[in-house]
Amino acid sequence: MVTGRHKRRGAGRTVLAFLTAFGALAGAALVGAAPADAAQEAVASPHKRVAPGVTYEQFDIPAAGGVAHAHVLSVDLDHPHVRVDLLYPGAVASRAAVSRMADGQGAVAGVNGDFFNISETQHPGVEATGASVGPAIAGGQTLKAAVPDGQRFGPALPPGTTTEDVFGVGTDGRARLDRLALDGSVGTSEARLPLGGLNQYALPVGSVGAFTSEWGSVSRVRATCGTDTDRAAPCSTDTYEVTVRDGRVVSAADTPGSGRISEGTTVLVGREAGAQQLRKLSTGDAVEVEHRLVAAGNGVPYRLALGGYPVLTGGRPLPGLDDTTSAVRTAVGIADGGRRMLLLALDGAPAYRSGLTIAEVAAAMRRLGSEDAFSLDGGGSSTLVARKPGTKSVSVRNHPSGGAERAVPNGIGVFSGP
After folding, report:
1. Going by DSSP bridges, is the β-strand pair 265-271/248-253 parallel, antiparallel, or unpaired?
2. What is the average per-residue pLDDT within 263-284?
3. What is the tens place of the pLDDT at every residue in 118-166?
4. Class of residue 229 by CB neighbours under 10 A (exposed 0-12, middle 13-18, buried 19+)
């Protein structure tokens, strides 16, 4: 039986095996120089220590669309000085560059995270929230739940996956893939209503959603636009909003508002049938709002969780993965039974911008030693940062395809310390 320690000793040989396998598939040795403005390093660089238990490397990957260039962090989750958590700007409906979030939270490395509400071209006059698609947990605290599948931004989901799919690291220090579903209710003197959303940029048709201080100050109007199957459908004309403070209704409005939500306050937004239920409430009425995220897995609480979609489970690529569309990608892999995390971001420099297909991402993560892998936001969002020796701030190691870092809602941060 191979122990976890033996597996980690073998991790340094993973890239050599990976490169050999891909070279054989390509029928030639790996080729391709780094971009002219990149650091002059070998095509397959040696592992470089970022912090105890955290290493960085980069290498080329021959692919159907041309040579891609990968930047990879290997993180030993068993190391006593290693910790991972969600990078985010302090509010769900907010965005910041990965480097800024990493430095602000003291991370030594990290990558960008979930897909997000990036624009509202189909709903003129409606503010894009910048909020992420899937569930999010930071420091063990729930930030938000998942939007309906039809409301997501990003490429089509692989068959059998949903916006509730997450990558997470539990309080046991083990990484895993899971699903997190919202379980919540709104209790009044007359009824107990199911809660349809928590700090989400899109609510299910006919539902009531809750917004807390974690949301931020961005307008909540977007939550009532589109439908469960059509993100571009018009905004609902039947809406209502109720503000609950210390368990009592304090105000109401016909349309969702904006502005900071104070601690101890919950804003309930209803659309269609949900709006009709909220109209039954009056100022001073008692209201009890409860919510939690329920895991489909083994029940270990999560310290970190964020959305995306799985591409590899149990060492096998998911069926139906796209094998035609190449792009710059970000992904996270799980190796050594959840004891090691691999963070991959492709380079967006012109020489490598063709990138990989999702099927090729799954193959790449498997050859790097991942048993499970999860796709995160790509394209102009793909960013990998890490500290260089002797520095106290991170550097962007890949070239974002937009020419500069894109502001994103969250990411995976790697921290080092006693």
Report:
1. unpaired
2. 97
3. 999 999 999 999 999 999 999 999 999 999 999 999 999 999 999 999 9
4. exposed
Separation of alpha carbons 377 and 258, rounded Å: 27
Q: Rounded to an integer, what distance in angstroms lies between the CA atom of residue 197 and that of residue 206?
A: 11
Q: What pTM did the predictor assign?
A: 0.91
Select from 315, 316, 359 the least CA-distant residue to 337.
315
Distance, CA of 19 to CA of 290 (rounded, Å): 50
pLDDT at 43: 53
Alpha-carbon span 135 to 164, nearest angstrom: 6
Place of tokens 């894109």: 406
**Tokens representing 262?**
């104070």
N-to-C CA span, the chain: 31
The single-letter code of the amino acid at 357 is T
Confidence band (pLDDT; 50, 70, 90) for 405? very high
**Which residues are within 8 A (CB) of 140 and not within 5 positions of it... i.e. 6 or more apart?**
171, 301, 302, 303
Q: What is the pLDDT of residues 138-147, one digit of tens each?
A: 999 999 999 9
Q: DSSP secondary structure string, 358-413?
A: HHHHHHHHHHTT-SEEEEE--GGG--EEEEPTT-SSEEE-S--TTSSPPPBS-EEE
- Written as one letter, the residue type at 29 is A
